[in-house]
Amino acid sequence: MTQTAVPETRRTRLRLPATLSASTPVFVLLGVLLLVLAFVDIGFYEPDRLLAFIRRAAPLIILAAGQYFVMVSGGFDLSVGSVVTVGVVVAAELFNIAPDMPWPVAVLILLVAGMGVGLINGLISTLLAVPSFITTLGMMLILQGAVFFWTQGAPRGYLSDDYRTLGRGMVPGLPWLPWAVIVLAVVAAAAVVFMRSDTGRTLVATGDNDAAAALSGVRVHRLRVLAFVLSGLAAALAAVLVGGFTGISAQAGDGMEFEAITAVVLGGVALGGGRGSVVAAMAGALSLQTLFTLLTMLGVSGALESTVQGVIVIAAVALGAVSWSRRQRVPNSTKERR
Amino acid sequence: MRARIRPALTIMSVSALLVLGACTSEVPTDTDLGTETTGADAAGESEFFVQADYEAQMALREAVPEGPEDRPWEQMIDPEMIDTSEYQKDGPHNLCFSNAGLFNSWRAVGWRTMQAEVDLHPEIAEFTALDGQGQDDKQISDIGSLAAQDCDALIVSPNTTATLTPAVEAACGEVPVIVFDRGVETDCPVTFISPIGGYAYGAAGAEFLRDEVEPGGSVLALRIAPGVDVLEHRWAAAERVFEDSDLDIVGVQFTEDDPATAKNIVSDFIQSNGGLDGVWMDAGATSVAVTEAFEDAGMEIPPIVGEDQQDFLQAWQDKDLTAIAPGYPTFQWRTPVIAALRILNGEEVPREWRLPQPVVTEDNLDSYLQEGMPPQHYALCGCEDLPGFPEEWGG
């Protein structure tokens, strides 16, 4: 009697955590943060304010999507923050050299250059077998140094108003709709479609077990290089939006690589790859941005902001880790029964 | 295993909730967001605030500087001249310079200006400069190696005050030392060169807002980072002015000098307060982003404090802002070279070489704003008469 009662109680107590998938905590966190924001300032949910908020979050969300591709395939991209900085400074320099350049040309140059950085990162990590952590750390330092050497701490040139439209402006005829929100929607849709494609699924499989993936015919190197190229592309696009939003700055992308990695980890993507969804990674970025806004509104500033951020990140990831360990336990116990 | 995870999880969740809870309990019931931060800062600032220095700087603002009016980098306020004949030496000279680093555009503009000043003097045969890259240990070793070299005079711009003091003291025994920009806790250098100081800077902006913003108006204060003495002084002086005013300081936030952070913070305050009537800043690198936050919210830009940075002065003129730009002039980078040569000629120099600290106002904006300079150029560079201007400064 008592023996059967105990496991039943345990099962009831375990039901809730067991249903948590790896990405559930981020949505719970986002929900909680949005709820707290509603209490602090209900006006936050007025449509124009909400859209302005999404416009501001767009670069980080796009960066997180790019970072997701690399992380889910088993790597890291630490260079994205410096790609953003370089992108902003180079755009200003382009307009300094050629003030009449049409803005789409400048955007195109940046996107191609971003993919170029990703390609180099990818090739070094795969062909030379340098761990991506080291490759991209090196790339980060190279780019930071290059910007510094080039600008001597004071970037030249202005970003033209046309160029800044994507990051700052509104869609003509719809004065409530920022361009950045449209850009974000397109990127998000493309990322979801890509992850549902065969290539996307293989990317996750590569991160999960690259030896198995290679044996089943996946070109692992090619796929990983693709992930880095996509990350570089996302970083360049983020640079266009960041430069548009705030104008020229020699530290535009400072720390964004860590925010992007934090966002992806918050989204439940396993370090080492193989698990997690791109939507959850983007939700992680939105959660981070919501958290920053909330802390500002609460008057929390300086060091405490990082502390609160750190606690929430650890808590959210711990939640994800616990549910994961349970999910793993099921096949283990099945194995034992056999 | 499972039993161990659950308490850990509980602790983490609870601590997260506690932090969130602690924050939520601080939410003021009215629109007066962020006043707690002001209180906390007021308590924290006391270790940096020195009443006597504050009063001295307030008085120096009114003093009439000695020296040529059109060359403020050669002017001196209330100088106590000292004899330097013991250092007299025939040229040509080898000057050495230990720089804290080139980590922002203010220092970049200053460094270019200093190099151009060196080029003006054929009696300087060699100018050896080492960059401390913002690291105390690097600069300590730089000073050591420069003092051991064949330098006739050593110029130091210290990275931090206390940590660099022993290195400067050691160098004083080898070579005449000139310290500028930031101080050290020793009077062994022959002369210490700096503008009036942080209190005067902070007060100038705060007094402007006190006079321009309607009584009861809401003002947001933006600071770069805590714990830097010159920035703490700026805020300490501003806080004193605000305490005696009818202004409502709705928040004190740190921007880390990042325009995106500044723009986000201001947007949040505009929206949660229904607007702002003024913005005070301890430095102006993010001021243009702040004005754009008001534009993007469809609001008029209220009275704002910036700095003598080109993009802000340009925006000031283009958008017809109500603004002020207290300066921490980059022309002070010319003075140490001039001081070194005077010392090596055995001429008198002031013990503390206090330079004027001009403030850009609506009345003199036109004289400081120059067409074609890069956005992060500093107008108070005093570099217009130097060879290579404006190209060498990016113009």
TrEMBL record, chain A:
<feature type="transmembrane region" description="Helical">
    <location>
        <begin position="127"/>
        <end position="150"/>
    </location>
</feature>
<keyword id="KW-0997">Cell inner membrane</keyword>
<feature type="transmembrane region" description="Helical">
    <location>
        <begin position="20"/>
        <end position="40"/>
    </location>
</feature>
<keyword id="KW-0812">Transmembrane</keyword>
<feature type="transmembrane region" description="Helical">
    <location>
        <begin position="279"/>
        <end position="300"/>
    </location>
</feature>
<feature type="transmembrane region" description="Helical">
    <location>
        <begin position="225"/>
        <end position="249"/>
    </location>
</feature>
<dbReference type="Pfam" id="PF02653">
    <property type="entry name" value="BPD_transp_2"/>
</dbReference>
<feature type="transmembrane region" description="Helical">
    <location>
        <begin position="103"/>
        <end position="120"/>
    </location>
</feature>
<feature type="transmembrane region" description="Helical">
    <location>
        <begin position="78"/>
        <end position="97"/>
    </location>
</feature>
<keyword id="KW-1133">Transmembrane helix</keyword>
<keyword id="KW-1003">Cell membrane</keyword>
<dbReference type="GO" id="GO:0005886">
    <property type="term" value="C:plasma membrane"/>
</dbReference>
<dbReference type="InterPro" id="IPR001851">
    <property type="entry name" value="ABC_transp_permease"/>
</dbReference>
<feature type="transmembrane region" description="Helical">
    <location>
        <begin position="176"/>
        <end position="195"/>
    </location>
</feature>
<keyword id="KW-0813">Transport</keyword>
<feature type="transmembrane region" description="Helical">
    <location>
        <begin position="306"/>
        <end position="325"/>
    </location>
</feature>
<feature type="transmembrane region" description="Helical">
    <location>
        <begin position="255"/>
        <end position="272"/>
    </location>
</feature>
<keyword id="KW-0472">Membrane</keyword>
<dbReference type="GO" id="GO:0022857">
    <property type="term" value="F:transmembrane transporter activity"/>
</dbReference>
<protein>
    <recommendedName>
        <fullName>Autoinducer 2 import system permease protein LsrD</fullName>
    </recommendedName>
</protein>
<feature type="transmembrane region" description="Helical">
    <location>
        <begin position="52"/>
        <end position="71"/>
    </location>
</feature>
Automatic annotation (TrEMBL), chain B:
<dbReference type="InterPro" id="IPR028082">
    <property type="entry name" value="Peripla_BP_I"/>
</dbReference>
<keyword id="KW-0813">Transport</keyword>
<dbReference type="GO" id="GO:0030246">
    <property type="term" value="F:carbohydrate binding"/>
</dbReference>
<protein>
    <submittedName>
        <fullName>ABC-type sugar transport system, periplasmic component</fullName>
    </submittedName>
</protein>
<comment type="similarity">
    <text>Belongs to the bacterial solute-binding protein 2 family.</text>
</comment>
<keyword id="KW-0732">Signal</keyword>
<feature type="domain" description="Periplasmic binding protein">
    <location>
        <begin position="106"/>
        <end position="348"/>
    </location>
</feature>
<keyword id="KW-0762">Sugar transport</keyword>
<dbReference type="GO" id="GO:0030313">
    <property type="term" value="C:cell envelope"/>
</dbReference>
<dbReference type="Pfam" id="PF13407">
    <property type="entry name" value="Peripla_BP_4"/>
</dbReference>
<feature type="signal peptide">
    <location>
        <begin position="1"/>
        <end position="24"/>
    </location>
</feature>
<dbReference type="InterPro" id="IPR025997">
    <property type="entry name" value="SBP_2_dom"/>
</dbReference>
